[in-house]
Amino acid sequence: MIKHAFVVCAYKESEYLEECVKSLIEQTVRSPIAIATSTPNDHISSIADKYSLPVYVRNGQSDIQDDWNFAAQQLESEWITIAHQDDVYDKRYVEVLTAKIDKMPSAVMAMTDYRPIIHGKISDDRNCRIKRFLRWPLKFRLLAQSRFVRVRTLSHGNCMCCPSVSYHRSVIDGPIFTSDLKFSLDWDTFLKFAKMEGGFAYVAKPLTYYRIHNEATTMDFIRNNTRVIEDGIMFRKFWPDFIVKILLVFYRKSYDTYLE
Questions:
Q1: Residue 40's pLDDT is what?
Q2: Predicted TM-score of the model (pTM)
Q3: Which of 50, 170, 182, 235 is the most interior residue, by most CB within 10 Å?
């Protein structure tokens, strides 16, 4: 079976889709690439045709969890990275990530460090630095294999970047995403895997770059308060209410990255 594959989740007509696709094609270690969408259109088709990529269309209303699960099922591989159309990958992402995976073959999930792209420039803002600090225990293999450490790493917020994550399909039984949440489903999913046997394979190098812009889906969830509601739901899985209220005061400051 193929070691690793990318599936790009494409939605509507993103001006950044081609840049994402090019960053996957230019990997030093090549992986199969496909595009999955629930909003087929000429823009997506033209980019797929230009780079000879297959497009898989999910019928039905667009939904993040359903779209991601559909995408993850389209290519046969041990590991799958669900790339987001607005983001960019360092050309050594697959090379470095798979080398790390080879050292932790029982890992259920693997991820890299990341940086935001703000106003077209790669940044290293306060939010990014704080989350990097929260992830530091995962740099050590013994700690990354501990259920307790993995769960506590997630207890102060979602310190992992969803597009940087690759999932070990060979050890995951059933759909990857099974959360009841709409925005915090990635955080909820990471917690699910943190409680499983295996470990997290973490590359402490910024090999993923996620784009912050006004059309990002995250902006909609901030504006309609879904994000703060669901972040509260997640914090309550770790802490009593009085601590959750305190944590949310500080955690909401991380939203400022999207509002600047």
A1: 97
A2: 0.93
A3: 235
